[in-house]
Write a structure and sequence with these properties.
single chain, alpha/beta, TIM Barrel, 4 domains, eleven-stranded mixed β-sheet, eight-stranded parallel β-sheet, 18 helices, binds zinc ion
Length: 665
């Protein structure tokens, strides 16, 4: 296998002589790709309908002659000055009526018909220009859609489109008022023109807020997909993706594109799990397709510590290919002139360039004996459902915090079993996993419930918690005991739910003072005492066929069931009645569930990330000190540090790739 390496390049900044020089350096370093064009609209179309592509053709040709192929990007995130001046209606509008302005990025409206017309014209022109060019390897649509200082547009085009969308969806105002239960706080609508988009974090609890989020997600996706369609119309087999897609349903987006691109900028002293989570997330967005790293800095952590090699091998372990560094050479001016680059403003190749060259040679040598290396696999997964997230948290910032923290706690606990879990959509094929965690699935669609039934009855183990299944798809409380559609799987019902004061969670402490201020739960897991804390939300469990594992140990809930397990078909469904629990208790529950699922946990030292691809084990030591641990592996570390008699030593912030004798070390 070859890991292809690329970089972002801006030929609009340089003359052909400099492009030749840079292309030669890239060839000598063994690089495969450049990504170009994503902010170059004013250079492609300096005046309306006057297109100039010669400079871009020249750059694509020069790189092509040097064996470096191009990923061409549509420039729709950077509308030029003339366009913003001539068509001010394309600029995003804040709720107070203030328009965005030229000079920032992502300042244009995803819904605006005029803007889409301008965008599609340019995307179509680009496709016509480059349709027969063998040096074009693929396309990137837009750049980091959804990452804007104006994340929500309230312009008249958006308001009109929202009205059209809800009218089409609900047909009559009676249906809409009923579906959203608008009576509280005088919320009923008697004329379609009364309807307006809502902001994410306002009008708490309103179904209109959830519907606004859903509408915006759809508009953002359409904005990307209409450009992909314009290119595919001219180049039917074009390979198309986008990068760092934010604030909308990522599964919906990437199900319609060819690859999912991540932009990841590691923090110098970030802990392992908060680094892994955004890296792993892109693995599950297009199952079975290698994720692309479309932007990552060339020397993360420099000058405290240089971690280019460390992160490179972490990405490879997680299946990323290609890997693009952002970016090649420093701009002389503009917003990103201070961004870290491979080549500085002087143009002289220095330490960073030499490191990258060495790294590419190392990767070629280490991986060439493994031409068909599989993507990383794990027996367990965690479900992230964007729609359910909106139902749970939109309108309530503190609930979004609780949602993120709970997801993180479960992800960390699953990772503790020995390999980083996959993050998947509820629509993914669950049969590939033995253990699935579905944290805070506020709304459980009926078709998802059917999949869960099939998964558990077939022998899978499922963990769910808190206010899962307590809301309908619009975010309304359900007038019935929960969890909706899955009561039979879990062998219990939840009623009389309530919210605690704080989404914060503290690690369990046996003192009396702690017990006076926190909710404590206790019981037994696999014959061993278990104790922990619960927060944010709880409900009254009434057991039908489930067995009680843990109960509330204090508070008004003392003695009531807290955590249950139910045998359903060949598998088990485990539920705990809090939106948040402490990490230690979550680890214990996941270990208990893993045993039921027939997973043998492999315990690695803390802060060592592990992923497995066929008979290669990728290890990354996030500790600031060396770790040494014993394994059962008979093999060798392909990256050099020692592996003797099964004992491996990993220096601080270094990676290892261990070739083992079999696929299950
Ligand atoms: Zn708008």
């Amino acid at each position: 296998m070859k890991v292809e390496v690329g970089t972002a390049y801006y030929p609009e900044d340089w003359d052909n002589e400099r492009v030749e020089y840079d292309a030669r350096l890239m060839r000598e370093a063994g690089m495969s790709y450049v990504r170009m064009g994503e902010f170059a609209w004013s250079h492609m179309e300096p005046r309306e309908n006057i297109f100039e592509f010669k400079w871009l053709h020249d750059a694509v040709d020069i790189f092509g002659k040097n064996g470096v192929r191009t990923i061409l990007c549509t420039p729709s995130s950077a509308a030029p000055a003339w366009m913003c001046r001539k068509y001010p209606g394309i600029l995003r509008m804040k709720r107070n009526g203030e328009r965005a302005w030229f000079g920032v990025r992502d300042h244009t409206c995803y819904t605006s018909k005029k803007y889409r017309e301008l965008v599609l014209k340019t995307a179509g022109k680009m496709a016509l220009e480059f349709k027969d060019d063998p040096n074009i390897a693929g396309w990137q649509i837009d750049n980091e859609a959804g990452c804007s200082r104006f994340p929500e547009c309230f312009c008249p085009d958006c308001q009109a489109a929202f009205r059209e969308y809800v009218r089409d969806k609900y047909k009559t105002l009676e249906n809409l008022n009923d579906a959203w239960r608008t009576t509280f706080w005088s919320g009923e609508f008697f004329d379609w023109d009364e309807l307006e988009l809502e902001a994410n974090w306002e009008n708490m609890g309103s179904c209109r807020t959830v519907e606004s989020k859903r509408f915006r997600s759809r508009e953002q996706a359409d904005f990307i997909l209409c450009q992909a369609e314009a290119i595919r119309k001219i180049i039917p087999d074009a390979l198309i993706g986008t990068n760092n897609y934010c604030g909308a349903d990522r599964y919906e987006m990437f199900s319609k594109l060819d690859f999912a691109g991540n932009d990841f900028y590691p923090k110098v002293n970030a802990d392992m799990y908060s680094t892994l989570l955004p890296v792993v997330r892109y693995r599950g967005l297009k199952q079975g397709v290698a994720p692309w790293m479309l932007e990552t800095p060339p020397r993360p952590g420099w000058p405290v510590r240089d971690q280019m090699r460390f992160y490179f091998w972490l990405y490879v372990g997680q299946g990323y290919n290609p890997i693009f560094y952002f970016h090649w050479n420093s701009h002389l001016s503009g917003n990103e002139k201070l961004t870290q680059t491979i080549i500085g403003a002087s143009g002289k190749p220095g330490v960073k360039y030499e490191m990258l060259k060495k790294l590419i040679a190392e990767a070629d040598s280490v991986l060439s004996p493994y031409p068909g290396l599989s993507l990383p696999r794990c027996e367990c997964a965690i479900i992230q459902d964007y729609e359910a997230d909106w139902v749970y948290a939109v309108g309530f910032p503190e609930r979004m915090e609780a949602r993120s923290n709970t997801f993180f706690t479960c992800f960390s606990a699953l990772s503790g079993l020995g390999a980083t879990p996959e993050i998947i959509s509820p629509d993914a094929n669950l049969a590939e996993y033995k253990l699935v965690v579905m944290p805070l699935q506020a709304h459980i669609r009926k078709d998802i419930a059917e999949k869960l039934k099939e998964f558990v009855s077939g022998g899978g183990v499922l963990i769910m918690n808190g206010s899962s299944g307590m809301f309908d798809g619009n975010g309304k409380n359900l007038p019935e005991d929960g969890p909706q559609h899955v009561r039979e799987i879990f062998g219990m019902t939840i009623g009389e739910n309530r919210i605690f004061d704080s989404p914060k969670i503290l690690a369990y402490d046996p003192s009396e003072e702690f017990a006076r201020k926190n909710v404590v739960v206790s019981g037994s897991l696999d014959g061993m005492d278990a104790v922990g804390t619960a927060a944010q939300w709880t409900g009254y469990i009434t057991v039908s066929s489930a067995e009680i594992l843990l109960t509330f140990a204090n508070s008004e809930l003392k003695g009531r069931p807290f955590c249950t397990v139910n045998r359903y078909g060949k598998g088990y469904a485990i539920y705990f009645a809090a939106d948040r629990i402490d990490q230690e208790l979550c680890n214990r529950l996941v270990l208990y569930a893993a045993k039921k699922a027939g997973i043998i946990p492999v315990i690695y030292p803390a802060e060592v990330a592990v992923s497995k691809r066929d008979n290669l084990v990728f290890l990354s030591n996030f500790n600031d000190s060396a770790v040494e641990f014993k394994t059962g592996w008979k093999g060798r570390n392909l990256l050099g540090s020692s592996l003797r008699d099964g004992v491996i030593t990993l220096p601080p912030r270094e990676s290892a790739v261990v070739e083992t004798a079999s696929e299950t070390p």
